[in-house]
Design a protein that fits this description.
The chain has 303 residues and is α/β, with parallel strands linked by helices. The protein has one domain: TIM Barrel (Alpha-Beta Barrel). Helix content is 35%, strand content 17%. The chain contains eleven helices and ten strands.
């Protein structure tokens, strides 16, 4: 009988520590994310993300600003990881993603943080920007699970994920929560400093949905398993919102749970980039909503 959350199955079968060891080995020639930097992070070499062997976090605690099925009444137990495998010029956590904020924690300390969030009554462990630390997170998870961690695991990411890495952690993650930022590769190159964002994100979302399916919410209103897709609407249609919604309806699921976000503001270096120097207008967001409803009347929109 399968256990819930998914990583408890790995633990029961004696596979969690084994998987962690396999993933940690990949840091010797790092291909954890789509950049395939091939640096030896075990020896402290740095690639695009600028994250080395040791995990850095910028903070942790119950978060009440996430999607309602994650927040409930006890909050989402967020852990904010420093660094990022994207270089978004408008990042709203610019200091964290650039590694300017954060402190190093051991795997044992990371495990204790997970357990502390559970003790505080959080409903899940929400890994914010985890992509570049997947091996270390799995290693810490193995320690925490042995000590009784039983909360669902949320993979809260930018959507630029290595499919092979996702396949290796199949069954480990309960809730995937990726961004789907753009449908134009040139926009992704200019604003997030990656050459192939749409192609990579589309494949990643397909794999995530294959693993966990549409979002399942229990009788208490809490997310149990599934996919939550976030899309930040940008000024002047730069995010390609209509194409994003059409792709989700056609190739992911017409019943997807989508957070269509209107909170864009010119953070980070955004004021240097023309249209990104201003906030979204009410008209632009209304058009985004209309695009979502045209794509599928069955979308569950978290507004």
């Amino acid at each position: 009988m399968d256990l819930y959350p998914g990583y408890r199955n790995y633990l029961a079968r004696g596979r969690l520590k084994e998987l962690a060891a396999e993933l940690l080995e990949r840091l010797e020639d790092c291909t954890i994310c789509p950049h395939h930097c091939h640096v030896n992070r075990q020896k402290g070499e740095l690639g695009f993300c600028r994250a080395g062997w040791e995990v850095e976090i910028a903070g942790y605690g119950p978060h009440f600003g996430e999607e309602p099925p994650l927040v409930g009444w006890g909050g989402s137990g967020t852990i904010f990881f420093s660094h990022c495998n994207l270089g978004c010029v408008f990042c709203q956590n610019f200091a964290i993603s650039r590694g300017k904020e954060g402190e190093k924690v051991s795997l044992e300390e990371l495990a204790r943080i997970m357990l502390a969030l559970q003790e505080r009554g959080c409903h899940n462990i929400n890994l914010v920007t985890p992509s570049h630390y997947v091996p270390q997170i799995v290693a810490a998870l193995a320690l925490a699970a042995e000590e009784g961690l039983h909360l669902p695991l949320v993979f809260n990411c930018g959507g630029y994920e290595e499919k092979a890495t996702l396949e290796r952690i199949d069954g480990l993650i309960d809730i995937y929560m990726p961004d789907f930022k753009y449908t134009d590769a040139e926009v992704g190159r200019r604003f997030s400093r990656v050459p192939d964002y749409p192609q990579v994100a589309k494949e990643a979302l397909k794999e995530m949905h294959r693993q966990v399916g549409d979002l399942e919410i229990d009788h208490k209103g809490l997310a149990r398993r599934g996919l939550i897709i976030r899309h930040l609407v940008l000024p002047e249609g730069l995010a390609g919102t209509e194409e994003v919604m059409d792709f989700i309806a056609r190739e992911i699921s017409p019943y997807s749970y989508i957070n269509l976000m209107d909170q864009y503001y010119p953070a980070g270096e955004a004021r240097r980039y023309g249209a990104l120097a201003r906030r979204l207008t009410a008209k632009e967001y209304k058009e985004a909503l209309q695009a979502a409803r045209r794509a599928s009347p069955h979308f569950r929109l978290a507004l």
